[in-house]
Write a structure and sequence with these properties.
CATH superfamily: Vaccinia Virus protein VP39
CATH architecture: 3-Layer(aba) Sandwich
Largest sheet: 7 strands, mixed
Number of helices: 6
């Protein structure tokens, strides 16, 4: 997948967690899906989702500069402004529910803290793609999300980090 990125925020596409997410995004059926990209950084995962057919993507990051960077990266990749929306804030600021897919390439301890709220945002049979998880958090993240009615469909361990793909029951 060819994505043009302006440097500036997290998510240049070179880190093992971002590469892992991009590879998994390409394998998902995103056609017409609603996607939440939490901790979007440069917007690379949201852009990838759009290029794979997602129709409505909300990119959320706590850093307003990252949000501006993500907007610019969407422009560079000719992503329609109606397809990808941007929000400077946290998961608490996301008023919408009913996403088909949640992308979150953030730290494992944050994924643990946000478990119930993230799972609540996903439709039944929806997908969560979680990454940025150090090996030492992998078991805890998997266990907690399984307790929250999710099933692990892929668990990829890399050099230092891991990526977990789950389906909400």
């Amino acid at each position: 997948m060819d994505i043009v990125m302006q440097r500036g925020a997290f998510g240049s596409g070179e880190h093992e967690t971002t590469v892992s997410c991009l590879e998994m995004i390409e394998q998902l059926d995103l056609q017409g899906k609603r996607v939440l990209d939490l901790g979007s950084g440069t917007g690379i995962l949201g852009i990838a989702a759009s290029l794979c057919g997602a129709r409505d993507i909300l990119c959320v990051d706590i850093d307003p500069d990252a949000v501006a960077n993500a907007r610019e990266n969407c422009r560079l990749n000719k992503i329609d402004e109606g397809t990808v929306r941007h929000l400077a804030g946290t998961l608490d600021d996301v008023q919408e529910n009913r996403f088909d897919i949640v992308l979150a390439n953030i730290y494992g301890d944050i994924l643990i803290d946000l478990c119930n709220d993230l799972v609540e945002k996903v439709n039944p049979d929806g997908t969560l793609l979680l990454s940025g998880i150090l090996w030492e958090y992998n078991f805890d993240v998997r266990n907690l999300y399984e307790q929250a009615s999710c099933e692990v469909t892929k668990n990829r361990l890399m050099d230092e980090f891991s990526t977990i793909l789950l389906t909400k029951s």
